[in-house]
Specification:
- By secondary structure, the protein is an alpha/beta fold.
- It folds into 4 domains: 240 residues, TIM Barrel (Alpha-Beta Barrel); 185 residues, no CATH class; 99 residues, Beta Barrel (Thrombin, subunit H), CATH 2.40.10; 96 residues, no CATH class.
- It has 15 helices and 30 strands.
- An 8-stranded parallel β-barrel has the order 1-2-3-4-5-6-7-11, surrounded by 6 helices. It has a 6-stranded antiparallel sheet with strand order 9-8-28-29-30-27. The chain has a 6-stranded antiparallel beta barrel with strand order 15-16-19-18-17-20.
- Strand 29 and strand 30 form a beta hairpin.
- Helix 1 runs parallel beside helix 8 and helix 5 runs parallel beside helix 7.
Length: 676
């Protein structure tokens, strides 16, 4: 069973349990977090005990907790991963996010399984296969267009499989699961949570004749994803789970971005309340915020909606992988120990601790942290908006800083302080009814999910001195739900007479009723069911798998063989692909971004036929990579080979892990396949 088709899920990231709790408090319907291992983020691990606390908090609101178990696994890691899966199941976790199909071939708990972004889901056939082997939720490749998402949705059963899509955060330039540059150059595998992020480095781009096409440009670095304007279109295309990237991100990011998308989804739900296809949130309660969410306040490389609305020519953050911030003003004077600025918006202010930056003459970002900020404004002389700032670093070391340079702010210390405080309130609506009984009175509370609880007390029936005022006061006391997760929607008092009820009686009665309601909700919480695989086993869309399938253990090999695959090559991490191969496959095209695409030249007089998709070379120090262009599917391959030193070290590690028995699969069809 998947997410009901009328429900929308806001899925937020958490580096740790505390951030996860704040994600829930800021409106997340679900949170994904790494466990103590195998979570594809090597420095974002959490203990099972901490995750259990997060589960307990989330379930109060019917929010779900998904744990990432999405690295590819060696044979010696399958049993530890299986034991961890059972521990997480016992801790109440709602689903595991996986990449390695070997997990489907071992004794896993009856927990729902979701397909990680690392499974690289770009086609209806791949999506249908994953649904049919029992995965209940699948996150689609970020590179898909709306039309491609619609095509995938049409192949799936919405009662069995939910479509999940990344709507915000950092973009991996490669098709997820299809990048091996880190493994080839450093031995750190992206498929095992140790990516060295070669895509964020500066490169020289050289053509086939040795001419420089671009100099020190971050040509593999993408802007950050932001689908704020496309939410309604994504819903119409079939997406039901809206995922925020960021398991490395801090508390302020998770609070702000979760709140931002909570407000947008709530507005969409409200707008379609009376439509033919009304929507609702998949968890309970309403969230209010003490701040106005603003994605520009957090680290970002500027924003793009990537390929959702078709190929764009401005998806790259080629000048810098850093946060450029927002324009705030211009330099008016550079002093020996300070810099004077004029702000573009004179209503804004600068503060000690703010972070400023600007582009030098090579278009690289230079940071300028403020140690002290002084306003030069008097208000009366008309110079409001003038500031003198004393940078943390020596002014003489700030490259190319001069009069007229535009300055951005990429850290607002006042915003940061707001995010450090309590900034949200999430409440589940409750209707309360107080009725008289022969011996006193009873309070019944019913929440928005239909759960109900009653508490009663003995009390002599005495008339209040002022009946009208007494009843209003009584309603007020009942409606004060304090630090609970509940908020009063309405309070009804059904008395035959305006009885006097002291606060010393009603307060513990209300507390008892709400505590009983929480227990009732906990008893009524339903765990997500495990998806059932189709029998007999459905065939995999292809009968041959290369290293790109990331098969790293015998259980995964057996899984694919069971589903009709005849030839299965081992994963790149098995160190058996030593020649030049595609180390990255991406929808991003450097030729297109540099206006060198043959399709762009088509029909242009004097250019048509001259621009060809010839290879380019990327150079960063001693590292060299070749760019090859597959124009029919409009894809780029970054080609290279594993360093000898890396291969030798990786072999040693594999032999130690396997105790002398290295992984061996068929890389080619056995001879009997050809009748020999």
């Amino acid at each position: 069973m998947s997410l009901p088709d009328f429900q929308l899920e806001l899925l937020a990231p958490a580096r740790d349990a505390q951030i996860g709790m704040e994600a829930v408090n800021h409106g997340a319907d679900a949170v994904y977090i790494g466990g103590p291992g195998f979570g594809a983020r090597s420095s974002a691990d959490n203990s099972v005990q901490d995750i259990a606390k997060l589960v307990q908090h989330a379930h109060r609101f019917n929010s779900r907790i998904f744990v990432t178990l999405n690295t590819i696994l060696r044979d010696d890691e399958l049993e530890p991963a299986r034991k961890l899966a059972w521990q997480l199941y016992d801790a109440g976790v709602d689903a595991l996010i996986i990449q390695d199909m070997g997990l489907l071939a071992i004794d896993m708990p009856p927990i729902q399984l979701h397909a990680s972004t690392q499974t690289d889901i770009r086609t209806p056939q791949k999506a249908r296969f994953l649904q049919d082997v029992g995965l209940s939720q699948i996150v689609l490749a970020r590179e898909l267009t709306l039309e491609q998402i619609v095509a995938i949705r049409s192949e799936l059963d919405p009662e069995r499989c939910t479509l999940e899509f990344f709507v915000h955060g950092a973009l991996c330039v490669a098709y997820s699961g299809q990048c091996y540059i880190s493994a080839a150059h450093t031995g750190r595998s992206a498929n095992r949570g140790e990516c060295s992020q070669a895509c964020r480095l500066p490169y020289q781009v050289v053509d086939s004749a040795g001419r420089f096409v671009a100099h020190d440009k971050h040509v593999l670095s993408m802007k950050d994803n932001n689908q704020s304007a496309n939410l309604a279109a994504l819903v119409d295309a079939g997406v039901r789970s809206f995922k925020i990237e960021g398991r490395y991100k801090d508390m302020g990011y998770v609070k702000n971005i979760t709140a931002h998308y909570r407000k947008l989804l709530d507005e969409l739900i409200e707008a379609r309340l009376h439509s033919d296809a009304p929507l609702t949130s998949s968890s309970s309660g309403t969230t209010t915020f003490s701040f106005t969410p603003d994605p520009d306040q957090n680290f970002n490389r500027e924003f793009t909606d990537y390929f959702v609305q078709g190929r764009k020519d401005d998806i790259g953050a080629f000048d810098s992988p850093k946060n450029p911030g927002q324009p705030i003003g211009y330099v008016t004077r550079v002093n020996a120990d300070s810099v004077e600025l004029e702000l573009s918006d004179r209503s804004k202010t600068l503060s000690n601790g703010d972070g400023l930056c600007y582009y030098d003459l090579q278009k690289e970002l230079v940071g300028m942290a403020i140690n002290r900020a002084e306003s030069l404004s008097t208000g009366k002389s008309g110079n409001k908006g003038l500031w003198r700032v004393f940078p943390k670093d020596a002014v003489s070391g700030l490259k190319d800083l001069r009069k007229g340079v535009e300055v951005n702010r990429n850290r607002d210390v006042n915003w940061t302080r707001v995010m450090e405080k309590k900034s949200s309130d999430r409440r589940i609506g409750v209707w309360a009814q107080l009725v008289e009984t022969p011996s006193g009175m009873a309070l019944t509370v019913t929440d928005e999910d239909g759960f109900s609880a009653t508490a009663s007390t003995s009390l002599p029936h005495e008339l209040a001195k002022d009946g009208v005022a007494g009843l209003e006061s009584l309603k007020g006391h009942i409606g004060k739900m304090g630090n609970t997760i509940f908020g009063a929607l309405d309070v009804q008092i059904d008395f035959q007479q305006p009885w006097f009820v002291p606060a010393s009686v009603i307060n513990p009665l209300r507390r008892e009723a709400l505590e009983s309601l929480e227990r009732s909700r906990a008893r009524g919480f339903d765990r997500l069911p495990r998806g059932v695989a189709v029998e007999p086993p459905v065939p995999y869309p292809d009968d041959t798998l290369t290293y790109l399938a990331n098969v790293f253990n015998q259980a995964a090999h057996g899984f694919y063989a069971k589903h009709g695959v005849k030839v299965i090559a081992p994963a790149y991490e098995a160190v058996q692909e030593l020649g030049e191969v595609s180390l990255m496959i991406t929808k991003h095209c450097v030729r297109f971004s540099l206006s060198l695409c043959p399709k762009q030249a088509k029909g242009v007089t004097g250019v048509q036929g001259q621009v060809k998709a010839e290879p380019l070379q990327l150079i960063n120090g001693k590292e060299k990579l070749t760019l090859r262009f597959d124009c029919k599917p409009c894809e780029m391959h970054v080609v290279g080979k594993m360093k000898t030193s890396v291969a030798n070290q990786s072999r040693k590690e594999l032999l130690n892990a396997a105790q002398g028995a290295p992984l061996q699969f068929h890389k080619k069809r056995p001879q009997q396949e050809f009748g020999h």
